[in-house]
Amino acid sequence: MALTLPAHADPLVDRLHTSGLLAELAHGLGGPFHYLLPQAFETNLAAFHSALADAGVEGRVHYAKKANKAAVFIDRCAAQGAGADIASLGELREALGHGVRGEDLVVTGPAKSDALLRVAARHGALIAVDALDELDRVLALRQPRPPRVLLRVHPPAQPRSRFGLGGGDLDAAMRECAEAGDRVRMEGFSFHLSGYDVQQRADLAADLVDLCLKARVLGLQADRISIGGGFAVDYVPADAWQRFIEQQRPADYHADKAFAERDFYPYHSPVAGADALAAVLAARPAGTDGSLAQRLRQAGVMLLLEPGRALLDRAGSSVFTVQGVKDRDRDRDGYGIVTVDGTSLSLSEQWFNSEYLPDPRLLSADAGRPDGPGPYRACVAGASCLDSDLLTWRKIAFPVRPRVGDLLVYPNTAGYQMDSNESPFHELPLPPKVVIDFPEDTGRPRWRLDR
Ligand SMILES: Cc1ncc(COP(=O)(O)O)c(C=O)c1O
């Protein structure tokens, strides 16, 4: 039986896919494109705010802008009172230009450029300082207002992480801030953990609360912590994922390409998004009696978050048109190679020795076409001259043999997939982004280009 990984059903997406609009857009735009659903982004943002409120925790959500370059999401942050996590001057400019206030920005990323530090400080953004030499550069800034900083802590549970200030450096940074007096506002601590472990986050968050108490003794403000992002996204149902992980083997892929389970993002997560935040807040940090939420309240510490992927869950997909189909190894257990009008540079996972696994959905140009005798298995290739340019190495079980002109929709690609690695290789234009809204009065989806 073919291994399938269908994305979770989504009524908004179904409405769009049955509306005929995507075929119109593919025709009008003349190449691949991404569609964005800001309504889903707003739902996710509201869920994060509710998780904070339900736990009785004062907190702020900062959307990790790196996860998608579209303007519409940062617009919605400004409209909904959320902040942004930015890591470059370009991202800072975009966030300010779309109405997020400087004081609602957190500046992350290691060894930030002098220009970024200067502009961030001028706009009152909160700078997560990653190293002692960076702190020196911040302290040397001559600005009308003292720069606001967090000290980013090296995570002991991930000793190989290159980010954050380790033991001795952290103490030195706290002393330097205390000695700098009014030249800096040291507002607390931050970390970013890789992976999705709830307990690890709760444990380190509680350590950061303790650090705040220690820093206050030195006369520092220290009233907030940032626990970064890393709230999982649940792309596919549990049973499909379990079966896939147990059974996948090289013969399931074009050219017998082998992937190990550890190569893949965990496309199924039982606890994801805002529920993962609720779980972190409810968890009992090691060595303490109460929950993390209680600890934050007792210590008067505000919680800052920087989710990227989780805010973009179901908020966009990537649409390609089939440009060619050929059969392969027809005499053996054959399969097809479907070539689309874009490249795998529009699906970032392919560039990390991995594969974006949720099944692409085939939208047939001929809606009345009957299904074939069984699934047609095919990998999906890009329209470039690179042999390794495959959007999907896996032989997908399509309900029928795709035809030239059909659409392939890669679901849920807004978080990091659609544009982090995009490139105009071969002089191919970058796929435009189309914002889709569902006005209540017409019932029909409406579109505009993201600017
Ligand atoms: C400092 C920081 N904040 C936030 C994020 C966003 O993480 P995610 O998209 O998994 O929520 C990252 C991702 O690497 C990060 O490095």
Key words describing this protein structure:
single chain; 451 residues; alpha/beta; Lyase, Ornithine Decarboxylase, Chain A, domain 1; TIM Barrel; 2 domains; nine-stranded mixed β-sheet; eight-stranded parallel barrel; 12 helices; 17 strands; 29% helix; binds pyridoxal-5'-phosphate
Commentary on this structure:
It is a single chain. Helices cover 29% and strands 20% of the residues. The chain has helices spanning 11-17, 21-29, 38-54, 71-80, 89-97, 114-122, 132-139, 167-180, 198-217, 238-247, 273-282, 292-299, and strands at residues 33-36, 59-64, 83-86, 105-107, 126-129, 148-152, 185-190, 224-226, 302-305, 316-328, 335-340, 361-363, 376-381, 390-398, 407-410, 433-437, 446-449. 46% of the residues are buried. Strands 1, 10, 11, 12, 13, 14, 15, 16 and 17 form a nine-stranded mixed sheet that branches. An eight-stranded parallel barrel has the order 2-3-4-5-6-7-8-9, surrounded by seven helices. The longest helix has 20 residues, at 198-217. The mean pLDDT is 95. It folds into two domains: 11-37 and 314-449, Beta Barrel (Lyase, Ornithine Decarboxylase, Chain A, domain 1), CATH 2.40.37.10; 38-234 and 269-312, Alanine racemase (TIM Barrel), CATH 3.20.20. The chain has twelve helices and 17 strands. Helix 3 runs parallel beside helix 4 (71-80) and helix 9 (198-217) crosses helix 11. It has 451 residues and is an alpha/beta fold. The radius of gyration is 24 Å and the shape is elongated. The structure holds pyridoxal-5'-phosphate (PLP). The site of pyridoxal-5'-phosphate has 14 residues, from loops. Pyridoxal-5'-phosphate binds next to loops.
